[in-house]
Amino acid sequence: MNKILKDPLLWIFLIFSAYPFMPYIGSFISLGSELLLWFVFALGFNLCLGQTGLPSFGHGAFFGMGSYAAAISFLRLFNHDAFVMPILAGIVLGAAAAALLGWLIREKKGVYFAMLTVAFTQVCFGIAFRWDEVTGGEAGLSGVLRGAFFGLPMNNPIVFYYFCFLVFIVCAVIIRKISRSCFGLSLQSVRQNPLRSQYLGYNIGLYKFSVYTISGGFAGLAGALYCLLTQSAYADVLDWSKSGDVVMATLLGGGTVSFYGPILGSLIFVICKNLISSMWVHWALLYGLSFVIILSFFPTGLMGIVKKKRNLEPRLRGNAPAQEQTRREEP
Amino acid sequence: MNLFSIQGLTKRFDALVATNDVSLEIEREGILSIIGPNGAGKTTVFNLLTGLLKPDAGKILYKGEDITGKKPYQIIRHGIARSFQVVSLFEEMTVLDNMRVGIQRNLGLMNRMFLEASNKAATEKSLELLELVGIAPLADHGASHIPHGDRKVLDLAMSLVSEPDTLLLDEPMAGLSPVERLRITNLIRKLSETRKIILVEHDMDLVFGISDSILVLHHGAILARGTPREIAANESVQSAYLGKEAS
Ligand SMILES: Nc1ncnc2c1ncn2[C@@H]1O[C@H](COP(=O)(O)OP(=O)(O)OP(=O)(O)O)[C@@H](O)[C@H]1O
Ligand SMILES: [Mg+2]
Question: Domain extents for chain A?
Answer without folding.
Answer: 2-316
